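Chapter review: from sequence to fold.
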Amino acid sequence: MNKTLKIFLYLIYTVAITVFFLYHLFPSDEVKAHIQRSLGRLNPDYSVRIDRIRPTFPPGLHFNAVGLFHRNGLLLEVKKINITAKIFSLFRAQKTMSFQGSTYGGILDGVVHISKDRAAQRFQVDARISGVQIQDISVLQKMPVKPSSGVLEATVLLDTRPTREPLKTNLTISDAELKLPPTFFTPGSLSFRSIRLEMALDQKTVQVRKSLISGRQIDGQFSGSVLFRNPLDKSILNLTGTIQPHPQFLANLEKTLAVNIFPKRRVGEKGFPIRIYNTIEAPKFALRP
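The token string follows.
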């Protein structure tokens, strides 16, 4: 066996041993702790729990069973996610990584940019969500109005630079059905062709800048804010807008007391002015003159 072949075989052996120890001795717990500390510095109200992390090739990490929590209340579960570094960006001031994962029957993917200024590390995240089955999202099943079907599509922009809004999102829910508490109206549920929301998160408040609802029984539009509390169902609602019941929906209510909520003389092109307030667990409604 010539010297070149020996060197080549030794190189293969060395790479194989390195890969073996990289996968089997990878410091998963240390990486999880680092991620938790980083998120805590970004916002101490949020935490993350990860079942397992392992390295991948091309250079990156694979995460199993990731949960995002707000003050110990589960917000989001991701079954699995792969994060891959853009090789050439590792030698630049701004590092770039791409990610792709699966959550609630849908896909989560996007790009992360990481840079560092004199004060701290800065993150920019551009994410897309598609095909998510909202009835599988556990936090929504704890709300008084529970989804029994619906598909979520969304874009999310996260930017920790001080001159930018921390988080903005545009989302659309299609073919949704929401189950109502007995005290709402006589129908057991409401069906929607689409629900479109434009929102921004500033510290502990979600600003609902615009929402457009197209339903089979009612249409509407809203704006306002939601102030996060712990637990999440104690969060404070402050929304105003208009609601336009369809004629058949009103006709179905004629034999009930609920019909008095929507006097026909106030039905117009824009519908009824309405305010939604109190908490998520016990929302209250008021028609404004």
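Two observations follow directly from the output. The first helix runs from residue 3 to 24. The longest strand covers residues 146-159.
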